[in-house]
Amino acid sequence: MTAFEMTHVSMTYGGRRRRVRALDDVSLSVEEHQKWGIVGQSGSGKTTLLKILAGLASPTSGQVRLFGRDLDLKSADVMAELRSSVQMVFQDPRSSLNPRMKISSIVSEPLRSPLVRNRPDMPTDHAARVAEVLRAVGLPPDCGDLYPHELSGGQRQRIALARALAPHPRILLADEPVSAMDVDVRAQVLNLLNSLVDSMGLTLIMVTHDLSVVRHTCDHVLVLNQGRVVEWGPTSTVMGDPREEYTRQLLASTIRRRTV
Amino acid sequence: MTLLAIDDLSVDFGRHHRPALDHVSLLVDAGQRLGLVGASGSGKTVLASAVMGLLPDNAHLTGTVRFQGRDLTRLPDAAFSRLRGQDLTMVFQEPMTALDPTMKVGRQASEVRRLHTRCSAAQARAKVDEIFTRVGLDPVSQIADAYPHELSGGQRQRVVIAMAVMNNPSLVICDEPTTALDAMVQATVLALLVEELDRVDAACLFISHDLDVVSSMCDDVAVIHGGRIVETGGVDEVLDRPRHPYTQGLVATARIDAVGPGQRLPVIDDFSSTSDLVQAASEQCDTPAPTRQDR
Ligand SMILES: Nc1ncnc2c1ncn2[C@@H]1O[C@H](COP(=O)(O)OP(=O)(O)OP(=O)(O)O)[C@@H](O)[C@H]1O
Ligand SMILES: Nc1ncnc2c1ncn2[C@@H]1O[C@H](COP(=O)(O)OP(=O)(O)OP(=O)(O)O)[C@@H](O)[C@H]1O
Ligand SMILES: [Mg+2]
Ligand SMILES: [Mg+2]
After folding, report:
1. Closest C-alpha to B135, from B95, B97, B103
2. What whole-number distance in Å separates Cα of residue B292 and Cα of residue B281?
């Protein structure tokens, strides 16, 4: 089944002072259980694309469908479906985690959402679920008593991920979810995401600048440049034999150790 | 010549029993680029904040941090404010930490310039345009006229980097400066950072978990584990022949390219048991700080 479909989506920000065309005629179709990587230069529209899929922004023009239904942000029905099946991890955890809430309430918040609460597969023992997801992202369960500012940057990023995973989403939208993580934790988290796709049928749409992460974790990739789709397809094709010069440049710019 | 001398620095946060920094000593020479690598939560940002005088009130600090001979831990606030943004600057892990959400970014950068140099508003603005252009913020006039939330993550971080190198500092502390940047911009920004550092002969304490980036940027590297420095030395020496088990695990887990698509990635626990690490960490915490290698 098709999880997300975008057709001819464009997005323009701003008024008279500063107009930015962040997305320009983007079409994309994501099947369930696929793992997509969205790559492209800074400012190319990656975050904007995720926000539109998450229903946090509506495109200036074009169509978005979630499981075949029009993503009409005014329809209560559609919003219920969206909130219960889609979760998003934001790029800058500092600005997305409520500084006045303890970690345990931050992580359990989606479980208490009225739109999600009544789903049959929703964990009822919230404390147990919180402990479970914290462990899954490599954090000790007793960090639930802390506030976000008491954690390190990589720990905060894992809180954001734990929160998104808590209600068993069908689709996970993640904006640079492993960028602030050290290699060890990054490996744990990517292993976790891979196993969730295999065992729970999760669909993953991930923005990352780390092409080795895309190569390892994503089966499909979309390359954006200045709001336009450069190319997309299976990762092995796009990264192994890129059709476009832009993609080749992107692949060539990865920093490598001088000696390995 | 020693620029920054951290000596026996410990930091804890009251109600936490385990200190975030545990008797850390570290030297940075003028012009040296020292990498600091370590696991999430190992104390890297706390170390940077301690040097910058930006620890929260509930932090308890012992030891000394000498910068150009002066002990920063005893420096009055007013003197510290003059130092920050001028001789001693920092690029933060999360760019919003450094930006005022209510002010256009061009104006913020101009103020940083004017606070520390005698110049007219027009001169400051010209300098901002110049430095924004160099870090690839394009088109400059539009970006300068935007509020932080109107910029993408990478654009925000480039604004912060521009502000950090603008006043010819002696030491720039970079805390994961490029995690929010795409590969192309990352390469560009790091090259720019190196160029600017070399131009004004500034030293850099470069915090990162990306060993590739550290090896391309730094002369020397220090490895921190559980709030202690466990290994220091030349970058190639440490990354090619890591001595401490934690560093060995770190180097081994960094090889994501060596693992087939979708295959399980190795984690540090695969390489050494936690008890070994704790043991070794306590034995090696007295490793001397690196000295600058001749270039
Ligand atoms: N709220 C906003 N108001 C005005 N312009 C915006 C807003 N959000 C984003 N933009 C602009 O839209 C363009 C695309 O931004 P977006 O955040 O989608 O980029 P991105 O690909 O996620 O970049 P990065 O890798 O740096 O995070 C950028 O030029 C940005 O300045
Ligand atoms: N304000 C604070 N109050 C209490 N504990 C704190 C505070 N700031 C940091 N800590 C703790 O100190 C330890 C070190 O944190 P620090 O932010 O220095 O880690 P880090 O090495 O920068 O990690 P990362 O790579 O994830 O950014 C962590 O265990 C963290 O929970
Ligand atoms: Mg973004
Ligand atoms: Mg940190």
Report:
1. B95
2. 24
The first and second tokens of residue A27, run together, are 């079409």
How does DSSP assign B55-84, residue by residue?
--TT-EEEEEEEETTEEGGG--HHHHHHHB
Nearest in space to A206 (alpha carbons), one of A31, A89, A55: A89
Contact B153 A42 (CB under 8 A): yes
Ligand 2 atom at minimum distance from B49 CA: 18
Among 3.40.50.300, 3.30.70.1230, 3.10.270.10, 1.10.10.60, name the CATH number for the domain at B2-241. Answer: 3.40.50.300
CA distance B164 to B134: 13
Question: Tens digits of per-residue pLDDT, A54-73?
Answer: 999 999 999 999 999 999 88
Angle subtended at Cα B170 by Cα B164 and Cα B171, rounded to the nearest 5 degrees: 65
Contact B57, B18 (CB under 8 A): no
How large is the ipTM? 0.75
A50: exposed, middle or buried (C-beta count within 10 Å: 0-12, 13-18, 19+)? buried
Atom 4, ligand 1: which residue's CA is nearest? B150
pLDDT tens for each residue of A133-190: 999 888 888 899 999 999 988 888 889 999 999 999 999 999 988 877 778 888 888 8
User: Closest-lying ligand to the alpha carbon of A45?
Assistant: 1
Cα–Cα distance for residue pair B136/B155, rounded to 1 Å: 9
Pairing of strands B60-67, B21-29: unpaired
For the CA of A152, the nearest atom of ligand 2: 17
Measured between beta carbons, which residues in chain A are less than 8 angstroms from residue B254?
183
Note whether B179 contacts A212, CB cutoff 8 Å. Answer: no
Our answer on whether the CB atom of A182 is closer than 6 Å to any ligand 2 atom is yes
A247 touches chain B (CB under 8 A): no
A182/B179 Cβ within 8 A: no
Fold of A2-259: Rossmann fold (3.40.50)
Closest ligand 2 atom to residue B56 Cα is 1
Q: How many residues does chain A have?
A: 260
Q: Distance, in angstroms, between B118 CA and closest chain A CA?
A: 31
